[in-house]
């Protein structure tokens, strides 16, 4: 009987400390995953638009873009991406907020190898939606159209704004729905709220 080749999972690690990135990468080798390390959230997001990622592990407190900002932006690109956050003792309130934003777990520093392995293994085993497009990264055009859909714009209005045909907008809209795992605009709105893509605090 021929054995099926198991596809390697891809893990992105974001931390501004080289020693921490190296330690996490070395530990995760035990899970036989493909690891890519980034010193900043900006570098990670750029790669996320073009590369496969099954799990993103990020520090919370970083110069420039912090872990919460990275989490918010990454969810816009890949709505079903799984996250773990790393935190120091003083950053725990931020880590709790990250968990509310969709992070599956947070790991306190100093990092324990077994704790990290267990959290990463659980996150990677977390079930994915079945649709072939669900969980795929949104293109830049789809991200733009998503924002317009969430603003309540019609397909015709969106077509005029992005200078595309209505038919093209309909195709993009269909892909967005499938990537979010929903079947209509109402469920898309609900899913966007769940993921924290709609911020009501700015309206208060």
Account of the protein in words:
This protein has 204 residues and is an alpha/beta fold. The protein has two domains: 116 residues, Rossmann fold (3-Layer(aba) Sandwich), CATH 3.40.50; 64 residues, Arc Repressor Mutant, subunit A (Orthogonal Bundle), CATH 1.10.10.10. Helix content is 47%, strand content 12%. The chain contains nine helices and five strands, in the order βαβαβαβαβααααα. The chain has a five-stranded parallel sheet, with helices on both faces. Strand 4, helix 4 and strand 5 form a beta-alpha-beta unit. The N and C termini lie far apart (62 Å).
Break the fold down into its secondary structure elements and pairings:
Elements (H helix, E strand, L loop, with lengths): L9 E5 L3 H11 L5 E5 L2 H8 L6 E5 L7 H11 L4 E6 L4 H9 L4 E4 L4 H13 L14 H11 L4 H8 L3 H15 L4 H10 L10
Helix pairs in contact: 2-3, 6-8, 7-8
